[in-house]
Amino acid sequence: MTLPTNLTELQNDYAVFLPALSTFYALFVGRQRRGLQPYDENVKGSGVPYIPHDRIPTHLPHGVESMNWLDPKGLWQYKWSLHSAGHASLDLTKDLYREDMFRDRNRESSWLLGDSGGFQIGKGKWEGDWRAGSGCEKAQKKRDGVLRWMDKFMDYGMILDIPAWVDRSPEGSAASKISSYQEAVDGTRYNNEYFMKHRDGSCKFLNVLQGENFAQADDWYEQMKDFCDPTKYPETHFNGWAMGGQNMCDIHLALKRVVTLMRDGLLEKGKHDVMHFLGTSKLEWAMVLTAIQRGVRKSHNENFTITFDCASPFLATSNGTQYTGYRLEHEGKWSYMMESAPDDKALHMDTTPYDQYCAPLYDNWMPSPMSQGLKLNDVTVYGPNDVNRMGQSNATSWDSFTYALLMNHNVYTHLRSVQEANRVFDEGRYPYMLVEDTFDKTEVKDVIARIFELDSYDAQMKMIDDHTRLWMKVVGTRGHVGKKTVNSSAQYFSLFEEV
What we know:
Layout lengths: L15 E4 L3 H14 L43 E5 L15 H4 L7 E5 L2 H5 L14 H17 L2 E3 L11 H7 L4 H18 L5 E6 L4 H11 L15 E4 L7 H13 L10 E4 L5 H17 L5 E6 L1 H7 L2 E8 L5 E7 L13 H5 L10 H5 L2 H4 L20 H27 L8 E2 L5 E2 H10 L3 H10 L1 H5 L7 E2 L2 E2 L2 H8 L4
Parallel strand pairs: 1-8, 2-3, 3-4, 4-5, 5-6, 6-7, 7-8
Antiparallel strand pairs: 9-10, 11-12, 13-14
Helix pairs in contact: 8-16, 9-14, 9-15, 10-14, 15-16
């Protein structure tokens, strides 16, 4: 089977999925680069390859570098990704191999969005007094570090928000000194003002919208919208929006927010061209966001682009699973398929082609450029008596490079699933979630298109409210169904199927 390798060319006018690049994955590219360089006292490296040549599968023409999809030399290419400041070194004086994949990328052929690390504040990982004007040295070091990191390495970046839910996180509230919703708003505003004043113009910034319910989301928007207003900040206004909290998981609220942004002159061509939806992993939402993007492009801003991200391809691998296919059943549930990957020390000498081994194990096995060239024992490396680099014997047959190989496979298949879902959706197939048929059959994409065809703001808002039943059917990410919430266990099984 000949698989497409340039996924950038297949993106068409779909909302853009951003793989949330794992530091673990990126370090393999950087370590191999440094190991192959001659020793330099200023560069950490020995001239010895980090991954031995005989460990690298033979179908990777540029070795480990072939696993870099941001590079034209990659086994397959895709120009867009996301990386979080929360997982990066903010010390720009350090030459870090683990960050080479994005620090030394070709800016002409790649595009990166930086997440600010606000989640780390919310979870108590970045300690410091984050209240507005506290003067805390720890908080200020992170605040300035995130800004400098974004300006240096990212095309777009999110401002350093303090999530509205931080006061409900015992660790986060204690570490950040934030004890209420309003303190989170005030702390975020303080960070916004700092970014606006000290940015150097190299990175474009997205104004993050938070809020745990409709009322908070509306209030947060009213308190933060001016930072994107070109009439108030002609030279330093922010350049788009990032949808967090309830905004990113409730289509009813998201549509109201987009329509309001258009009315307020805050979704303008050349000024606010990007909107990002944080942590959006439901496959059906790819089509929802594409429909919104198309509506705004047709009626208001032809450059408008929606992006969304998740770390699922990397997390799946860390749990020993791989993407095996996708389900796009007409009027059924659409989903990615993840199942346990081969892991057996008895297979350490088995050179069966990986796709040949996997195809009988799973329904509708979906190969990737990576899997097509693998042998089974490229994955099941360790035998019963083998030890790892640390001299330890583990239960798994995988070495650390196995995880990187399968991460590459998982990212590719996730991307292809999103693109294929959009393609067949355009052909007229649709998931059950995106149609309401209690009385007459009503499709989400048709209603969204009609909303953006209306000239009146009041008429747009009325149409949104008139279709509340339809929006309630669209299951949101992170366990939200319209204005309802389910627990994390139910959410996991709504995203993935375990075999």
